């Protein structure tokens, strides 16, 4: 397929205004890919902020394909038939955002096969090119409408705006397409109908944050997790939860957050940190915020031959992950109105406040501790490879932190 290029400005002006008040469906993710040529450490980044009707998510390891897979799935998906973000043992990673402007003239009686396609890709592909080959050879219609994002262990990084019968490739390593080293996609495709789609406000928010990071040499997993995964800002109105940090904990201030990056339907936020060309693919790191990001913590995980995961991030078939359950329970304190559209309003001082007792503020020391411990190991593993005993020790540390600390969060 022919590589497609279009200037961001076209969509940041006319399309932004055209689609501004389009009612976003539930599957409304915010995503980005950052080329390793522009990141702080030279490793590519793949970001998926997942919005969905199914708020209970967990991690699983799949061993039935050509390659072993570490994946984010719905907790009620007993057979893990659909994968929503994941990596495989070769360092290949994939995610998607639903698009709502690709199949208007090319409908199919069946749809919503994106999760099935991503599972297949993880089980069969090791490079961006192999994923492109997979799209070419699969029977049409593909029964999908999505922006698929992929990276690989060779530094490959690309989006594929994919409909039922065709796709358009956006190479994130091409400076003509991504002059600042990144591409953002929400819920429309630049190759689709210019008058439709969703997520224009969220697109502008993520675009502006990554532009700032590129200008300060801060394109990193840490920047995304802290500044985009937890972003409660409306780029149209300018309203930002940080504006209310000066309020005391006993004050009440509600903010409409349906059009923010973190929104009522957010179920997880993941950053896949790839490897340098020639580096061990097993060092591909999946930084995972499971559950509502304002009430959860980022935990890095790796795919190793021992198939280990922190117990708080996974669960037996059909069951829920403990961290996700903890996060959803705390979400009720931040978005306490359940009637009608009340779910779209966030009680800001329950999240952050001047007394530093907001839920997010209480969780930050635990996340910092987990991150520091992980980076200590990761620096060594990049010289030696993942050491199994150290991985086991780290995962036990994570489990203990979650189990012991969450009951104290009020």
Give the topology, please:
Blueprint: H1 8-18, E1 30-34, E2 45-51, E3 57-62, E4 69-74, E5 85-88, E6 93-98, H2 114-124, H3 128-137, E7 146-151, E8 157-162, E9 167-171, E10 182-185, H4 200-215, H5 221-227, E11 254-256, E12 266-273, E13 285-290, E14 298-301, H6 322-334, E15 345-347, H7 348-351, H8 359-384, H9 388-405
Antiparallel strand pairs: 1-2, 1-10, 2-12, 3-4, 4-5, 5-6, 6-7, 7-8, 8-9, 11-15, 12-13, 13-14
Helix pairs in contact: 8-9
What does it look like?
With 410 residues, the chain is α+β, with helices and mostly antiparallel strands. It has one domain: 4-Layer Sandwich (Penicillin V Acylase, Chain A). It is built from 9 helices and 15 strands. A hairpin with a 4-residue loop joins strand 8 and strand 9 (167-171). Helix 8 packs antiparallel against helix 9 (388-405).
Q: What's a concise summary of this model?
A:
It contains nine helices and 15 strands.
The rounded distance between the terminal residues' Cα atoms is 53 Å
CATH topology: Penicillin V Acylase, Chain A
Number of strands: 15
Q: What proportion of the residues form beta strands (DSSP E)?
A: 15-25%
The structural class is alpha+beta
- Which CATH architecture? 4-Layer Sandwich
CATH class placement:
Alpha Beta
Biggest sheet: strands side by side, in what order? 3-4-5-6-7-8-9
Largest sheet at a glance? 7 strands, antiparallel
């Amino acid at each position: 397929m022919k590589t497609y290029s279009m200037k961001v400005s076209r969509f940041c002006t006319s399309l932004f205004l055209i689609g501004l008040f389009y009612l976003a469906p539930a599957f409304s993710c915010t995503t980005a890919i950052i080329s390793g040529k522009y990141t702080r450490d030279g490793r590519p980044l793949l970001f998926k902020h997942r919005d969905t009707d199914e708020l209970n998510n967990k991690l699983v390891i799949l061993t039935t394909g050509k390659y072993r897979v570490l994946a984010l799935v719905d907790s009620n998906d007993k057979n893990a038939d659909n994968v929503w973000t994941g990596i495989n043992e070769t360092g290949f990673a994939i995610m998607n955002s639903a698009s709502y402007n690709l199949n208007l003239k090319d409908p199919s009686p069946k749809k919503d096969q994106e999760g099935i396609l991503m599972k297949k890709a993880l089980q069969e592909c090791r490079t961006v090119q192999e994923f492109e080959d997979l799209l070419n050879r699969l029977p049409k219609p593909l029964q999908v409408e999505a922006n698929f994002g992929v990276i690989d262990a060779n530094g490959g990084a690309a989006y594929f705006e994919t409909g039922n019968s065709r796709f358009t490739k956006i190479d994130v390593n091409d400076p003509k397409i991504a002059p600042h080293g990144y591409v953002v996609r929400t819920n429309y495709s630049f190759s689709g109908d210019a008058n439709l789609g969703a997520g224009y406000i969220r697109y502008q928010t993520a675009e502006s944050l990554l532009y700032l990071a590129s200008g300060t040499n801060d394109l990193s997993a840490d920047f995304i997790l802290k500044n985009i995964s937890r972003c409660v800002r409306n780029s149209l109105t300018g309203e930002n939860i940080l504006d209310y940090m000066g309020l005391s904990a006993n004050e009440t201030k509600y903010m409409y957050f349906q059009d923010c990056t973190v929104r009522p339907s957010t179920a997880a936020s993941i950053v896949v940190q790839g490897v340098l060309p020639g580096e061990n693919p097993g060092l591909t790191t999946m930084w995972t915020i499971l559950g509502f990001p304002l009430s959860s913590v980022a935990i890095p995980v790796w795919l190793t031959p021992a198939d280990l995961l922190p117990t708080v991030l996974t669960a037996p078939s059909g069951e829920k992950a403990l961290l996700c359950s903890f996060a959803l329970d705390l979400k009720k304190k931040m978005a306490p109105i359940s009637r009608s559209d009340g779910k779209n309003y966030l009680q800001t001082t329950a999240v952050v406040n001047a007394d530093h007792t907001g839920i997010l503020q209480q969780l930050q020391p635990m996340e910092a501790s987990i991150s520091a411990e992980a980076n200590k190991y990761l620096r060594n593993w990049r010289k030696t490879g993942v050491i199994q005993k150290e991985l086991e020790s780290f995962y036990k540390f994570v489990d203990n932190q979650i189990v012991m600390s969450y009951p104290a969060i009020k």
